[in-house]
Amino acid sequence: MGTRTRATDVMCRVTSDFELLSFEATEFTAEEAAEKLNLPLNMLFKTLLTKGEKKGYVLAVVPSDHRLSLKKLADALGDKRVEMAPIEELTRLTGYLKGGVSPLGTRRAMPVVLDFSAFQHSRISLSAGQRGLQMLVAPSHLQQAAKALVADISDNDS
Asked: What are the YbaK/aminoacyl-tRNA synthetase-associated domain coordinates in residue numbering (predicted)?
């Protein structure tokens, strides 16, 4: 394995059974990654920074062809309300840049909620902690590495 990031270091503590895929990132979107890596968009998962009334900052991991449901996330966390965190706080809290946010190896430890649809795939793709670098991994390994709560937290865009 060539590239090491904080995210890959965390995953290595759980398993070495993952693959890194790199591409030339210019737009920093999941759509770009899916197209350049020739992967279906529903297999690519994006990591979003949210903030709950009681729980504070939480990372939500949802399929890229879905929207995060803030209501479902709040329900899963037992929180009254959850909102998207301001983009300005993203790098400060996670240590990652937009388009390269991983739920693993964040600067500040925070809970992770993984959408249950991840388990419809044998492997999913998510950011490995830098723009243009994706990690292909079994959902169960991601759940274990991130100590993630699994819940229905997304709404389909279509």
From this structure: 28-143
Q: Which residue in 6, 26, 4 sits closest to 95, CA to CA?
A: 6
How far is 127 from 94, CA to CA, in rounded Å?
A: 13
Q: What DSSP assignment string belongs to 35-101?
A: HHHT--GGGEEEEEEEEETTTEEEEEEEETTEEE-HHHHHHHHT-S-EEEPPGGGHHHHHS--TT--
Domains of the chain as residue ranges with CATH: 6-124+137-156 (3.90.960.10)
d(CA 17, CA 80): 38
Predicted local confidence at residue 157, as pLDDT: 56
Determine contact, residues 97/91, Cβ cutoff 8 Å. yes
How many whole angstroms from its chain centre is CA 50? 12
Which residues, in sequence order, are CB contacts of 66 under 8 Å at separation 6+? 42, 115, 117, 154, 155, 156, 157
CB 79 within 8 A of CB 55: yes
Considering only CA atoms, give the Rg of the chain: 14
